[in-house]
Amino acid sequence: MPLQIISATSAHAAEINTLLHELAAFEKLPEGPELSEGQIGEAIANKNLHGLLAYMDEELAGFALFDYSFCTWQGKYMFLHEIFVRPAHRKHGVGKGLWKSIAKLAHEQNLARIQLDVLDWNTDAIKFYKAFGAVDFTKEEGWRDFRVPRSEIAKFAAANPSAPV
Q1: Are the CB atoms for 91 and 44 separated by under 8 Å?
Q2: Hey, which residues are catalytic here?
Q3: What is the set of domains in the chain, with CATH numbers?
Q4: Distances in Å between the alpha carbon of 81 and those of 145, 162, 165?
Q5: Per-residue 3-state assignment (H helix, E strand, C coil) for 50-116
Q6: pTM for the full predicted model
Q7: Spatial CB neighbours of 161, under 8 Å, sequence gap ≥ 6
């Protein structure tokens, strides 16, 4: 059977959770994701998370997870959190099929861009994304990404209880 790509629903939360743990192992992140299967299902049901599942011969081969954000300079864009293909299914067009589906969604919605993060040691992923026109804007534009973890948010909020909301 050929590659089949479907939109994820909350009913796929267990499969997505399994793939997220496999991805964490691949990315050398032994603690794995913090989200539970229930939280994944809820995020999909509430349209906070979107996904595509890829099947080869009716076997789950990979997935892509993304959401939408807004850039005040360019408009709505897609943030691609993950594309992951199980090792047994790599080099069989699964990643390319997922990418084509993502690009089609972005094009149909007239999105400004698809944005993603890649670990610097994952040279295969870097080559994969560059083959589809991705640009490392860290180098090209000098942007650096920052994040404020939950623990720091809590500290700041507790230290500033009268801050306006």
Answers
A1: no
A2: 129
A3: 4-159 (3.40.630.30)
A4: 14, 35, 29
A5: EEEEEEECCEEEEEEEEEEEEECCCEEEEEEEEEEECHHHCCCCHHHHHHHHHHHHHHHCCCCCEEE
A6: 0.89
A7: none
**DSSP code, position 6:** E
Strand pairing of 59-71 and 4-7?
unpaired
Per-residue pLDDT of the chain (165 residues; tens, 9 = 90+): 699 999 999 999 999 999 999 999 999 988 889 999 999 999 999 999 999 999 999 999 999 999 999 999 999 999 999 999 999 999 999 999 999 999 999 999 999 999 999 999 999 999 999 999 999 988 888 888 888 999 998 998 888 777 776
- The residue type found at 28 is K
Amino acid identity for residue 156 in this structure: F
